[in-house]
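Quick illustration for those who missed Monday's session on complexes.
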Amino acid sequence: MSTLRFIMLGGFLGAGKTTTISRLARHYQNRGMKVGIVTNDQATDLVDTNSLRAQGFDVGEVPGACFCCNFNKLTETVGQLEKTARPDIVLAEPVGSCTDLVATVVRPLQQLFGGTFDVAPYAVLLKPSHGGRILRGEQRGGFSPQAAYIFKKQLEEADLIVVNRIDELSADEADVLTSLLQSQYPGTPVLRMSAKTGAGFDALAEFIEQRGRFGQRLMDVDYDTYAIGEAELGWLNSSLSVTAAKAFKLDELLLDIIARLQASLDEIDAETAHLKAIGVADGLYGVANLVSSFSPPELSLSSRGHVREAQLVINARVATAPETLTEHVERAVAAACATRGAKAQFQQTQSFRPGRPVPTHRILQPTA
Ligand SMILES: Nc1nc2c(ncn2[C@@H]2O[C@H](COP(=O)(O)OP(=O)(O)OP(=O)(O)O)[C@@H](O)[C@H]2O)c(=O)[nH]1
Ligand SMILES: [Mg+2]
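Prediction with magnesium ion bound:
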């Protein structure tokens, strides 16, 4: 019986997982393979699902809980993709605040579904902005020690660590990060990449082609600390429509919302893990992001559209109370719309602190 290649790509919120998955998907498609993608979140209305679908990919979504806690939904979603898209390869993006994924996803797929899945080595992307601070042990890493714990555990279980965003790093900065990783995670290969420019991408693609004994690292996880770290983040997913009498530039609206949020969250000293907004209109789509309080807002995908109506999805993961986050998002959207003579109508907002992770399976023994 043929098995389905399953490639999961980990890393902290805003590390570049979706950007890399999109590049990997095109890479395999260019080689004549069919690709399915599975996204994952604690709630519905995902920027990533919308963005990957807008790019033309077949995407299944596991909403409501992380892959580890909603494992059956993961296999079910892959099963649905198999029926509709018949992929040769499935690319999966777990929630960026999740760890212990080898014990709760990789090994269950290897050991309980070995006839169905051929699981690739597990690569984890490093986000240099927060990562550098956390690896250097700086007090102000931006997050609590418990959130930093999750960040480190994500790296500890990796078969491969990939320093992403090297297009923004000097050679010296990349060297420092690499040697911090090599000393703190001895024995784990480290690659450098830019998911944006494609530099170093071939080495990642080559690494995850490998078959063999991966997912072997034994790792303790203190679920109390893990739960506190995840609950530190306010989580918000909103969907809304924007209408205006006169056409406005969609990309500028998205960037304005993110910039206003950055400024107002800065005033209350709330660190951003990732803010993202997608706008879709007339077959066009744009995405704006902010990956930390100390980096600039950016347009990761440009719509170049002048529109009078758009459908927006906003996802925010910020170290603050969910009610506070909701207020800030509503205010930023209202102000950004007002300057364009536009009106926003929120359809749905889900905002909460992630609950304690309770994995469906947790297999501590590496696959033989
Ligand atoms: N300069 C630069 N930006 C990048 C690179 N990779 C990703 N980004 C940007 O970083 C932001 C976050 O990228 P995503 O791919 O959405 O990150 P993610 O890990 O999927 O984030 P979550 O799904 O929220 O966990 C976007 O604005 C991307 O354009 C890179 O190599 N270089
Ligand atoms: Mg993503």
